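F.,

This is the one I mentioned.
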């Protein structure tokens, strides 16, 4: 009898092992690291759980792989643990955890594109098989408590859908899941499991026409903005109010109106969709180096971007130029007149200097821009006729 009971007990234990839920099985993580855009390390793990009670991303391995993620492990709590795998209330094929540029209750349009949208487009959409399953990818934006410091679970950054940084984050996530790392996620008391997960953003080749134009097409599709053919030539002059201003703005507009319809462009307070849509009006977009010039990405294919660079300014105008040249025709005007510069106090690099634009010099550049657009349109028309 005792032998029979022992056999039955063993049989029951084996049966229980077979029937145990799959969530208790926790494969050892596989880990790789590459050079990242921000932070410097781009870390990839398999089989990870976001345990909301622990407020940490957990994995199982004989090696503490997170120690190889020099900065990612500071921003995001990533831990190697032993024991049973926590229950999975929700599972995604691939997670993308990244920071957004957010400081003092605001953000920066250029840095959101350069440091966030383009790297994420490359990771999630570019030459990837697209699916309608929202669980294929989940994008999890993060706000740092300070730069390269632990994330702020209590951030208010994602509470208002009308904020452009929220709209941009949602646009790059579409059609997948958008899930910010914030207090409400913890309060839901649902553990999130990932078959794969990446921390940070990958390095991007900003000089790739293929990447830049693919990104633009994706955004225009998501925000439902269609490219319209030009009816008349129209110039948009970006106006700035705090620094790097055009001090003779009215004179510039009067001069440019002698060669084409010219309008002031003010992006402040506009939704992301409205900014992209507004760009379809212009043959040429011109402005001093600054975040608003990023919208030049969304001009029609033959629209021309003209960047105005202050006198001897040590700015990121080259980064702007590389990115915008990939989209289409691009020109620059550099202020070479020291006497037409108004330097801000304590600004030894002229990065915030205001400029009196030389109107005759700019008119020559703008005439070149209009000719560039015309030639590009005619060339494309000829190519399509030949085809």
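My design for it:
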């Amino acid at each position: 009898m005792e032998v029979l009971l022992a056999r039955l007990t063993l049989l029951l234990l084996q049966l229980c092992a077979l029937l145990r839920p799959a969530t208790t099985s926790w494969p050892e993580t596989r880990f790789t690291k590459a050079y990242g855009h921000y932070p410097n390390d781009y870390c990839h793990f398999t089989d990870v759980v976001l345990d909301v009670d622990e407020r940490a991303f957990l994995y199982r391995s004989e090696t503490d792989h997170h120690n190889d993620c020099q900065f990612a492990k500071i921003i995001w709590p990533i831990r190697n643990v032993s024991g049973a795998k926590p229950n999975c209330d929700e599972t995604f094929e691939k997670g993308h955890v990244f920071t957004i540029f957010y400081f003092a209750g605001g953000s920066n349009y250029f840095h959101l594109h350069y440091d966030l949208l383009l790297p994420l487009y490359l990771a999630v959409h570019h030459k990837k098989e697209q699916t309608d399953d929202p669980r294929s990818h989940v994008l999890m934006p993060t706000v740092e408590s300070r730069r390269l410091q632990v994330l702020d679970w209590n951030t208010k950054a994602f509470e208002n859908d009308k904020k452009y940084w929220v709209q941009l984050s949602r646009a790059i996530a579409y059609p997948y899941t958008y899930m910010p790392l914030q207090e409400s996620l913890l309060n839901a008391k649902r553990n999130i499991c990932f078959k794969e997960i990446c921390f940070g953003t990958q390095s991007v080749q900003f000089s790739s026409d293929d990447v830049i134009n693919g990104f633009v097409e994706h955004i225009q599709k998501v925000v439902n903005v269609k490219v319209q053919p030009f009816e008349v030539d129209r110039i948009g002059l970006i106006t700035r109010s705090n620094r790097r201003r055009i001090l003779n703005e009215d004179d510039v507009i009067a001069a440019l109106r002698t060669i084409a319809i010219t309008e002031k462009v003010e992006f402040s307070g506009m939704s992301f969709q409205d900014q992209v849509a507004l760009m379809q009006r212009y043959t040429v977009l011109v402005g001093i180096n600054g975040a608003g010039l990023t919208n030049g990405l969304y001009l029609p294919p033959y629209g021309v971007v003209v960047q105005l660079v202050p006198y001897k300014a040590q700015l990121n105008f080259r980064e702007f130029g590389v990115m915008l040249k990939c989209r289409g025709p691009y020109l620059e005007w550099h202020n070479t007149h020291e006497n037409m510069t108004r330097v801000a106090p304590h600004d030894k690099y002229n990065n915030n200097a205001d400029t009196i634009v030389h109107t005759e010099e700019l008119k020559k550049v703008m005439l070149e821009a209009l000719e560039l657009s015309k030639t590009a349109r005619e060339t494309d028309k000829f190519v399509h006729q030949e085809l």
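Residues 244 and 354 are 4 Å apart (CA to CA).

Talk soon.
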